[in-house]
């Protein structure tokens, strides 16, 4: 066994630790909101729109901070970034139980957005790319396999806590889980920064030069646009899923049954990527995943309540969504190298997270402008098609400006 392979094997406990913390972070700060939204809004006398707006603010703050947080990890490592993020998540989730006004609600959720930026997938991916000289893509896939169970674990857990002890006690429990699980795991498992100490003098200016070259490359922004359109469509469909299927002639129960297949299909998509597509370039896998989204939506439009077509829609849609999480984490390293991965990945994540926050509102406006959910499905399919075409056209040309002294060495290792 080579020294590099042995080092990577020793680093796999990091994958398990980050996988566990991703389940907790996503489950407590993202998925639990859908259950806590109603009692939280009722407590402060706020409408559903106002309450959801606070969550959207958190996503936007997270997006805006993704690149600065990634740059911090590039320079100092991820141990204290992620540890402080989990500690802040614990404090802010506990504070959420005490909000009294919409202003308090928005301030706390803005703070949770900061904690999200320091703990969710993007900082975890930056840590993995720094830690795994080879095999970081498989490590990313491993962490996302854990993350796929966040809703499976935390939706029923949060509901049980609310039913037995009330929504405020549920929040305190979620805060305690972050404090007792995520904080120690990040301290123990996330490595201290070893690269910076070993880097030659002048490495930091070279990194800034490489990052500047990437940010001056037009294809970088076209790739960002492709990822952003894809994320907007997924976000819009996830929120309006039940009404769209009802528009296709299904009952609420039938729509929920079809929707229940999407989660397992996401996990299955990640398993397929891990087992059969791991040797393919991430950009090629990304093109496949990108095209699965419009294909699934056109199929949904044409299914007309036929159960076979709807099941195939759920399979394609779920698998594409599951694989896209891996692609989003792997493509920046493949195209632009590892030295400035955190900043580059964070810069790509900024419009993606903002699109996730805006997607449901955009879909609602389309529904207002055009009668019928069929028009919404066609609109989203059109956006998804444009995003897939843009990704396919630009991914093969992206990354050329980054061939510098630092990144040439990185590319030769891959």
Automatic annotation (TrEMBL):
Highest rank taxon of the organism: Bacteria
Keywords: Membrane, Transmembrane, Transmembrane helix
One Pfam family linked to the record: MFS_1
Residues in Major facilitator superfamily (MFS) profile domain copies: 14-400
Segments traversing the membrane: 12-33, 53-73, 80-99, 105-127, 139-157, 169-190, 220-242, 254-272, 284-301, 307-327, 339-358, 364-391
PROSITE patterns, per the entry: MFS
Name by which UniProt lists this protein: MFS transporter
Source organism (scientific name): Caldimonas mangrovi
């Amino acid at each position: 066994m080579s020294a590099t392979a042995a080092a990577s094997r020793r680093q796999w406990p990091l994958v398990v630790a980050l996988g566990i913390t991703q389940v907790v972070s996503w489950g407590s700060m993202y998925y639990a909101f859908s259950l806590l939204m109603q009692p939280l809004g009722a407590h402060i006398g706020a409408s559903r729109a106002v309450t959801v707006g606070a969550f959207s603010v958190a996503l936007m703050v997270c997006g805006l901070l993704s690149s600065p947080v990634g740059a911090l990890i590039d320079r100092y490592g991820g141990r204290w970034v992620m540890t402080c993020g989990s500690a802040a998540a614990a404090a802010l989730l506990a504070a959420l139980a005490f909000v009294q006004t919409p202003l308090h609600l928005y301030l706390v959720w803005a703070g949770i957005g900061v904690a999200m930026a320091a703990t969710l997938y993007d900082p975890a991916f930056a840590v993995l790319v720094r830690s795994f000289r080879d095999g970081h893509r498989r490590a990313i896939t491993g962490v996302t396999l854990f993350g796929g169970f966040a809703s499976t674990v935390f939706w029923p857990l949060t509901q049980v806590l609310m039913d037995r002890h009330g929504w405020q006690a549920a929040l305190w429990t979620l805060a305690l889980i972050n404090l007792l699980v995520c904080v120690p795991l990040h301290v123990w498992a996330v490595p201290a920064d070893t690269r910076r100490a070993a880097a030659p003098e002048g490495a930091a200016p070279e990194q800034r030069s490489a990052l500047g070259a990437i940010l001056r490359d037009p294809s970088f922004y076209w790739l960002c646009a492709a990822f952003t359109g894809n994320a907007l469509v997924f976000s819009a469909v996830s929120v309006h899923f039940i009404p769209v299927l009802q528009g296709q002639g299904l009952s609420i129960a039938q729509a929920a049954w079809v929707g229940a297949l999407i989660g397992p299909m996401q996990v299955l998509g990640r398993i397929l990527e891990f087992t059969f597509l791991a040797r393919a370039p991430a950009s090629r896998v990304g093109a496949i995943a990108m095209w699965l989204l419009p294909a699934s939506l056109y199929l949904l439009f044409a299914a007309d309540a036929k159960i076979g077509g709807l099941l195939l829609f759920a399979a394609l849609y779920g698998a594409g969504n599951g694989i896209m999480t891996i692609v989003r984490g792997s493509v920046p390293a493949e195209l632009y190298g590892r030295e400035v991965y955190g900043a580059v990945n964070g810069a790509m994540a900024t419009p993606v997270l903002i699109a996730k926050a805006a997607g449901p509102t955009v879909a609602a406006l389309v529904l207002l402008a055009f009668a019928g959910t069929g028009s919404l499905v066609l609109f989203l399919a059109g956006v998804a098609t444009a995003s897939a075409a843009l990704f396919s056209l630009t991914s093969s040309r992206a990354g050329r400006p980054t061939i510098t002294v630092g990144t040439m060495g990185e590319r030769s290792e891959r």
